[in-house]
Amino acid sequence: MARIVMKFGGTSVADLDRIRNVAGRVARQVAQGDQVAVVVSAMAGVTNTLVGWCQALSPLHDAREYDAVVATGEQVTSGLLAIALQTLGIEARSWAGWQIPVHTDGAHGAARIHAIEGEKLIQHMQAGQVPIMAGFQGLGPDGRITTLGRGGSDTSAVALAAALHADRCDIYTDVDGVYTTDPRIVPRARRLDRIAYEEMLELASVGAKVLQTRSVELAMKERVRVRVLSSFADEAQAGTAGTLLVDEDEIVEKEIVTGIAYSRDEAKVTVRHVPDRPGVAAAVFGPLSAANVNVDMIVQNVSADGSTDMTFTVGRADLPRTIALLQGAAASIGYSELLTDAEVTKISVVGVGMRSHAGIANTMFKTLADKSINIQVISTSEIKVSVLVAQEYTELAVRALHTAYGLDG
Amino acid sequence: MARIVMKFGGTSVADLDRIRNVAGRVARQVAQGDQVAVVVSAMAGVTNTLVGWCQALSPLHDAREYDAVVATGEQVTSGLLAIALQTLGIEARSWAGWQIPVHTDGAHGAARIHAIEGEKLIQHMQAGQVPIMAGFQGLGPDGRITTLGRGGSDTSAVALAAALHADRCDIYTDVDGVYTTDPRIVPRARRLDRIAYEEMLELASVGAKVLQTRSVELAMKERVRVRVLSSFADEAQAGTAGTLLVDEDEIVEKEIVTGIAYSRDEAKVTVRHVPDRPGVAAAVFGPLSAANVNVDMIVQNVSADGSTDMTFTVGRADLPRTIALLQGAAASIGYSELLTDAEVTKISVVGVGMRSHAGIANTMFKTLADKSINIQVISTSEIKVSVLVAQEYTELAVRALHTAYGLDG
Hints:
Chain A has 13 helices and 20 strands. With 409 residues, chain A is α/β, with parallel strands linked by helices.
């Protein structure tokens, strides 16, 4: 007997037939003797419709009312799945965020979960009931509905698993796990059986959008074993399917490099000929930070003639704002020229094995050099090496690195 | 300064444009210096879609889950209207039934309101805020969402008006008031400026479906002044438009007959040659009552040969069940024959003035006789005379009676 949280995303509950399929899958889990709780997203498309209505009425709509409107999508799915489960003879009950309650902070539209009161649900589960929690939502300190931001149902599921002391949190999605890289670029990419939380965080934040980043952070903090698997795949190998997110210590045979990630959502900014003196970095990045522009990779060349070039990346969507902010601060920074390039890709090799291995970065540089790919910017962390290259080399670079690190299946 | 509850039905909030129109109407009421609270239905069609999903998953769906699903429609409208009002500079805030809360009994799918906690909303209104309550819903004793049954938002509005000690409850709908009869049959029908609660109850229950019957009962019990008016009509005469439901005492010049109602939703049943002895009525109606078949008009002819004929009406939808029940009880009743006729119409003349006037019924009988319309069944109450006629005479009878009682405009 295990206690399992099963989470189903929007495409898994897109219509009544799929909701019936999900009910069947939950029923079979229950038939195995497990205690099961379910977390559901809104039916695919519903959230977009509701968000669109709020936007159409006012681009600057009140986030509290947006939350009241948008949270209904998950409530509908939870009720419908309860009905579908009851027709299979399973005692099921829907729970909106405010009913449990899922306590969040007051940041409407992007709230964070503080605590979930799990005791009541545990009692229901022990009495044979399957609770179905509407994901993506909670109750703010003002007594009003909050939502967690797009993709927040993943975080709802992990938080519920922590509150219920669940043995596992199974996230059913439209991919069947986490791969060594994007299979659309590298057909020989392999599905990973296990991945460390830290690796998943790096892969997620650099573009492998399988799980909401915050859900992985929460899983790592609360040590929740999360499994990512497909809601459409064959159920025969259900116990072993998908990718399991675990603590680094649980991975016995550590690969040196676990995966290759890439992100095309970057833009490069170079501020030329800034004076090479203390405080200049603050003059460049202060205005960006104040405007909540997230700066990622930063390099500063060695000074030549008392001035230096500073290069960094920002999210591509933030590029126009970044240019405007730097032009506004031109006098205080004192640069000669502002160069930008949105046609770049950030490519990262990720693996907890790097901690104990030298030469990982060098393999990357050599592999790219062999393909005549110029590296524009480099940044490293304990378990990641990232480079910025011209966007046209994306596929070539990812494939070459996948082979170089022995990841081809 | 008055305190007004404004209620808008599904067609009044059918899309974003209409929600904007409603916001404009509310804003103009606020601009008059009134304290305003709003009650909204789901956008037209939404409730039907949600109900359809529940039905498709299970015809015998759990009413608690049905309520969780269906109540979302009103929640969406309340949030959208709050956003629309905020864009007009009005401080507005949506309230789901569980937030206020609107306490109901536990009869999921057809709950009755026990109490609405109005103090918090009154404070918000006094501070200049417009509360927008999601209609049709409340919170049951089990801590779960309840709904009030179709048309329940009317009852929500009247109950809120009572809880807020409002001066008036304005029900905006797709008709501009209550008429002396159906204008589609009698073009010269007049809109009534005022109507007594009791009259409205009789008119509503015999087919003039302007308001949910329960909302009228509640208005009468709580002495809430309800005004029915169109959300599409010109606003110039807003103060005087529509029909005001008031206490009988407030109607100074009482018409003898206020209106002519008709209902085609009846079916006639005749049980022939039942033994004329004590207990036979109980033998006939006992099984129907036990099966929740609502019996309306009942007549029993004088006994001729120790046996009698018993005729009554039921809702047409209940006719097949009624036949089956009476056939099942044939032995205990001991009748010779069962005759049924679904091609009938019940026509009623209604007016509180009848209490003090004789000859009302006779005018009805004479008028119908003059048109050679045969009366099949008669029943009377203090403020109503109803007759059953063949359905083909419906329009002829309604027009003749409208003229005979001096109601033509």
